[in-house]
Amino acid sequence: MADAIRLRPLTALRWFPRSRRGFWFGLAIDLIAPVLAVGTRLRVSGSRHLPRDGGVLVACNHLSFADPIMVTVYCLLGERVPRFFAKAGLWKVPVVRSVMRSGRHIQVHRGKASALEAYRDTVDAVRAGDCVVVFPEGTFTDRADGWPMKAKTGLARVALTTGTPVVPLACWGSQHVLPEGVWLPRVFPRRRVELVAGPPVDLSDLVTDKPTASQLREATERIMTAVTSLLGEVRGDDPPPEIVKA
User: Fold this and answer.
1) How confident is the model over 87-109, as a mean pLDDT?
2) CATH number corresponding to 5-244
3) How many CB atoms lie within 10 A of CB 11?
């Protein structure tokens, strides 16, 4: 792809925005990015699709604990500092919790009331002009073939009620760097990781203050169709037709 960028040690750090990162989140970026560049063959395409200002949602498939690191690189190369919609349990992990608080990431607790609070926090974030990353599946895919599983409709609700653009992003290869159940990344031999983004998903005909269940399903399917199509490009394979249903 014409705008593909290969992450190289130290070089990429000069491109990364320095403001609005928070101390600990910024330190984590500066420490991890060079290691990532040395330990993987990371290629990022489609950073031009990420708006340089204003609220935006990034929707990505989910394969590994390494995904947030990879997606952070994509956003930084697009000159945006991401905030993540992430499980509250991360705020209980030593060191990680400092990074999460510093980066102003959004806690997602289990339970209807807590989910509503997280939704409101996300709405506030995009209305304030932030870039928020969401993994619509909610967790790692449970499909043995690595294709996305059924997505939740929370992302669609935020997008439709705020009119915020949704940029689809596909990640492939991170599952080989940090497979589920493994705590130390596998950096040798270097694994190839690719991230490819597409233009914002057209949801303009669905935007409303009070989306119906059918509108949420339709928006979610459009988002996941875009993500899955990009993943198919990366994998060089056709995705199964049933996986985008909300």
Assistant:
1) 88
2) 3.40.1130.10
3) 13
